[in-house]
TrEMBL record:
Transmembrane segments: 12-35, 74-97, 109-128, 140-161, 182-204, 264-284
GO biological process: transmembrane transport
Protein name according to UniProt: Sugar ABC transporter permease
A Pfam family hit: BPD_transp_1
Organism of provenance: Viridibacillus arvi
Signal peptide as annotated in the record: none
Keywords: Cell membrane, Membrane, Transmembrane, Transmembrane helix, Transport
InterPro entries associated with the record: MetI-like, MetI-like_sf
Membrane-protein topology: Multi-pass membrane protein
C-alpha cells in the first residue's frame, strides 16, 4: 500500500480509542452481571460489587439448574434455533439465487413485491389472526414458520450471488446441469462467508426472540428461554415464584433461609441464556468478517 493511502497516525489512534471505548461499554456490563451471578445474593445486596465477586457462591446457578421450566426452555430454544436457522437459511438462499437468474419470468416484479413487504406490514392484530387461522398459535411451529424468511437477508444473499463468477455457472449450464445442481454444487460452496453471516443473524434472532413466546404461546412448556427470562426480569417476586415451583407451600418460609435473591437469580439466568451464543460465535467469526462486507467492494 502506498504511503498516500495509509491512514494518518492520529486518526488511527483516535480509531483505536473509539473502538476501545465501544468494547468497554459491551464488556464491562457483562462482567458486572457475571460477578453478581457468582456472588452470594444476600452479600450482593450490600453493594460495592463491580467486576469481581466478593463472596463466591454457586447457589444461583444451582437454583437455575433445578428449574425444569428453564431446562425445558433451553431445549425449545435449541430446537427452534437449529431447525429455524437450517430451514430458513436454505429457503432464503434458494429464493435469492432464483432472483439472480435473468431468465426468471417477472424477476423484477417479484423483487419489488418482496421489498414492499419490508416497508409495510399488516399490523399485530391481523398478524395474530392469520396465525390463529393457520393453527400456529400455541404450537412450536409459531416460532419457525413465520420466521423462515427475511427480506434483508434475501437481498444480502442476492447481492453476494450476483458477484459470483458467472462464467463458471454458465459453463455448468452448457454442460447440462440443472439450476438446483448448480445451486447445490457451485453456488453454496462459494458462498460460505455470507451463509455463515446470515446463519448467525438468523440464529441470534431465534435465540433472543421473546415476543412470540409471550403473545402467541400459552403453554408454559412451549416457552423458550428468552421468554422465560423476560418474564423473570419483569416479575418482582421472581425468587418466590421459582421457590414455589420447587418447594410448594413452604416457598415463602424458605425466603428467610436462602442466600440468593431475585436479582442474583436473574443475573445467573442471563448468563445461562447468553452463554450458548457466546460459545458458538468464535467458530464462525472468520466467515462473519468476510460476509458482513458483502457488496462493499466491487471489481
Amino acid at each position: 500500500m502506498s504511503k498516500s493511502m495509509e491512514t494518518p497516525l492520529p486518526l488511527r489512534i483516535l480509531n483505536l480509542i473509539l473502538i476501545g471505548i465501544l468494547c468497554l461499554t459491551i464488556i464491562l456490563p457483562f462482567m458486572h452481571i457475571l460477578a453478581l451471578s457468582f456472588n452470594n445474593g444476600m452479600d450482593a445486596q450490600k453493594g460495592g460489587i463491580m467486576f469481581l465477586p466478593r463472596d463466591w457462591s454457586l447457589e444461583n446457578y444451582t437454583e437455575v439448574f433445578k428449574q425444569n421450566n428453564l431446562i425445558n426452555g433451553l431445549m425449545i430454544s435449541i430446537f427452534r434455533t437449529v431447525v429455524g436457522t437450517t430451514i430458513g437459511v436454505g429457503l432464503m438462499a434458494m429464493a435469492a439465487y432464483a432472483l439472480t437468474v435473468k431468465t426468471l419470468p417477472g424477476r423484477k416484479y417479484i423483487t419489488l413485491f418482496i421489498f414492499f413487504t419490508m416497508l409495510f406490514s399488516g399490523g399485530t392484530i391481523p398478524y395474530y389472526l392469520v396465525l390463529t387461522d393457520l393453527n400456529l398459535t400455541n404450537t412450536i411451529w409459531v416460532y419457525i414458520i413465520p420466521s423462515l424468511y427475511s427480506v434483508t437477508n434475501i437481498l444480502l444473499l442476492r447481492t453476494f450471488f450476483n458477484q459470483l463468477p458467472m462464467s463458471v455457472i454458465e459453463a455448468a449450464r452448457i454442460d447440462g446441469s440443472s439450476e438446483f445442481k448448480i445451486f447445490r454444487t457451485i453456488v453454496l460452496p462459494m458462498s460460505k462467508p455470507v451463509l455463515a453471516t446470515i446463519s448467525l443473524f438468523t440464529a441470534v434472532g431465534h435465540w433472543n426472540d421473546w415476543y412470540a413466546g409471550t403473545f402467541y404461546v400459552r403453554d408454559e412448556m412451549l416457552k423458550p428461554l428468552a421468554t422465560l427470562l423476560q418474564e423473570m426480569l419483569t416479575r418482582q417476586d421472581a425468587l418466590a415464584d421459582i421457590l414455589l415451583r420447587s418447594s410448594g407451600s413452604q416457598a415463602y418460609e424458605m425466603l428467610d433461609r436462602v442466600s440468593i435473591t431475585s436479582e442474583s437469580l436473574q443475573m445467573a439466568t442471563i448468563i445461562f441464556v447468553v452463554l450458548p451464543i457466546v460459545c458458538v460465535y468464535p467458530f464462525i467469526q472468520k466467515y462473519f468478517v468476510k460476509g458482513i462486507t458483502v457488496g462493499s467492494i466491487k471489481e
